[in-house]
Amino acid sequence: MDNETLEDCRAVYLTAEDLRIAASILYNAYHDDPFFVDSLFTSDKAAYEQKLRAAIREELNTLWQQKQALIGLFDHERLVGLACVVTQEVPLGEGRYWHWRLKMLLGTGWQSTQALIKKESSIVELLPSKHCGILQFIALAPNEQHKGLGHKLVQAVVSWCDEQPDLDGIGVFVAQESHLQLFTQHDFVSLGDLNIGSVHGQLLFYSVQQDDSLL
């Protein structure tokens, strides 16, 4: 993708009308994600894909209803990628609302729901304060990868983060080397190794950059 096309891309909040396409992008991006494979897969590929769709759909709808940051990357009017950030202003991990637990239980099963809760709890425990967010999802459409858009999307996330007066930073669990390299290029640093289920990775953290002119 040339620089002119990159400049045509814009990052804006998603609308309700964008959620269906957003869910499709997330499904394709996370289909082979180590954590979801470990948490949702049994031995039936069709059942795994059904549970993955249910988990993504429920989480995306929950983030929307709780007015969390759903940042879309658009090429003109076409959604090409998105990032979803959840803050500790809403209950996470063991504190998840009962109706989220029920819908996730119906869609993915007991063990999978518990794995999702445990992942969040493990991340929250390592975050430096209660004023931090978690990057729940970040994804590009399959045909938009390897064009430089990943950097543009991460930059949109950190720019959003810097603009939040009550946020200290955001954490993201990374289990793939290519993702580690991407985030570290945008000032994410490791808070340490983290094992979630049988998946080994690192918790990366971006600390809010304060504007010195406001100090």
Tell me about this structure.
Helix content is 45%, strand content 25%. A seven-stranded mixed sheet has the order 1-2-3-4-5-7-6, with helices on both faces. The N and C termini lie far apart (39 Å). A hairpin with a 2-residue loop joins strand 2 and strand 3. By secondary structure, the protein is an alpha+beta fold. It is built from eight helices and seven strands.
* Distance between the amino and carboxyl termini: 39 Å
Q: Element order, helices and strands? A: HEHHHEEHHEHEHEE
Averaged pLDDT, please? Answer: 90
Largest β-sheet summary: 7 strands, mixed
Give the low-pLDDT segments. 1-6
Q: Determine Rg (CA atoms, Å).
A: 17 Å
SS elements, strand count: 7
Taking strands numbered 1, 2, ... along the chain, how are they ordered across the largest sheet?
1-2-3-4-5-7-6
Tally of DSSP helical segments: 8
Structural class comes to alpha+beta
How much β-strand is present in the residues?
A: 25-35%
Give the overall shape, derived from the CA principal axes. globular
Main attributes of the structure:
alpha+beta; 25% strand; single chain; disordered N terminus; 215 residues; 8 helices; 7 strands; seven-stranded mixed sheet
Topology overview:
Blueprint: H1 3-8, E1 9-13, H2 19-30, H3 34-40, H4 45-65, E2 69-75, E3 78-87, H5 98-108, H6 110-126, E4 132-140, H7 149-162, E5 169-174, H8 177-184, E6 189-196, E7 199-207
Parallel strand pairs: 4-5
Antiparallel strand pairs: 1-2, 2-3, 3-4, 5-7, 6-7
